[in-house]
UniProtKB/TrEMBL annotation:
Name of the protein described by the UniProt record: SpoIIE family protein phosphatase
Any one Pfam family match given in the protein's UniProt record, by short name: SpoIIE
Domain of life: Bacteria
Keyword Kinase: no
Keyword entries, A-Z: Hydrolase
PANTHER family according to UniProt: STAGE II SPORULATION PROTEIN E (PTHR43156:SF2), STAGE II SPORULATION PROTEIN E-RELATED (PTHR43156)
The PPM-type phosphatase domain, residue ranges: 292-509
SMART domains in alphabetical order: PP2C_SIG
Listed InterPro entries: Bact_Sigma-Reg, GAF-like_dom_sf, PPM-type-like_dom_sf, PPM-type_phosphatase-like_dom
Lineage, opening ranks: Bacteria, Bacillati, Actinomycetota, Actinomycetes, Streptosporangiales
Amino acid sequence: MTTTPRAVLAASFAPGDEAVPAARRFTREVMTAWAAMSVSVDAERLAGDLVEEAGDGPFEVMWVHHGDSVQVEVREKGEADAVHPPTNAVSWGVTFSGSARTRWARIDLPGGVGRTSEEWVGEAMHGPGWLGFLADASDLLAGTLDPDMVPAIIAQIVVPRLATWCAVYTVEHGSGDVVPAYLWHADETQMDALRDELADIAMPPGDGPAVLHVGEWQALAFPLTARGRRLGIMCVGRSDRFPDEVMQLAEDLCRRAALAMDNARLYAQQAAANLALQRSLLPPEEPHTPGLDSHVIYEPAGETNEVGGDFYDLFPVGDGVWRFAIGDVCGTGPVAAAVTGLARHALRLLAREGYGVAAVVARLNQAILEEGDRARFLTLLHGEITRTEGGLDINLVSAGHPEALRLRPSGVVEAVASPQSLLGVFPEAEFHEESVRLESGDVLLGVTDGVTERRCGSRLLDDDGGLAKLLAECVDLSARAVAERIRRACQDFAPEPSADDLAILVLRAP
């Protein structure tokens, strides 16, 4: 039997290692918005199963709410091939339309279709049903920090329990204009007509509930205000008069929704600020090193890519001469970021002023100590590369950093720099350069402790020379391939995500 969809939410994804986790996160947000968290685990697993079979091109994941069930569809360009039954699906299949292939699966919702707004209003405002509704609404609103998802959750909490339709508007930063963010109607076929009606209506500027004149609907507008700021408007409508109980509940819900919206915005702003600051502390573009095979991988840890931690640099200082650096500041956050910025910019400035490698490291040590209480100690591998006939000559200093390794074409791996004092601790520390020769095919590897101290239980990746053993398997690989091999080994070493930043620098003599 065919049922009319009650809701549809879709998103597009790119292929790759992050496709399945991204589709599962999207599914969790959809189930949150639809108040269907009881099936969220099964739904995430279902979406993951279908996405794992997606091809190499971009694809779309669409969730369809049928009232008593939810259906996931994965649409992509592709030919007919074998399709395996996804787990937990009560029904599934694959359809083709032109060059597009859609694989779908459906799972049932417990309890079937929820009650309508008229049935809910029949219960006393302070009855267990309404109290449970407000508690569930609070949990749902608090369950996402994505500012784009909050309006969708608000609308789908309201419909159909409080109203037949709900439109959420948000205030744009800067201009202060109110713009539509999300619209939901109990009858999806009427959404386009309702959207057109609302487009011609001016939203009220007041701080209290206001009556809207929307066709034959009884419509009300409630401001979304949190911490003294107007964030948007929630508009609701129904065919009959709004009972006083519903108006009071709508106002209560608006207060909770506005706070959730403000929290999500603040979180998004902080995450964006962290990302912008992190990018400012790293080279603006991938290093260009003609005549030198090099590659760098940098992966900040943490859900919001907190600033600070590891950094790298690779830049020219003359014809056929480059400087490189890979370092790790103790800690994360703004204080560590200050030291990171100081280190990277000082390295460039001093190198281009003609200071040698050891002199640069010594002056950076003094600069960090002069930061006083804000100082954080820093480990650093810094060197100068000179291209010569048949290879590369490198002068380097390893200041408390994980040892640099050289890989010979024969498969022999050896440490090439002795450890010296880390930076920001001893004002009397002295540093000396060491010379390394890379013949054609030799590889130099520098990493931060996000690699060497990658943990699985009580074991570290570099226990018993684990990193050297990994590097020994990289004979005849390009610099990019070596870096990717090390990164993948770090990922596979433990099932849980790394809690530390990771930086990998690979230099290979052509």
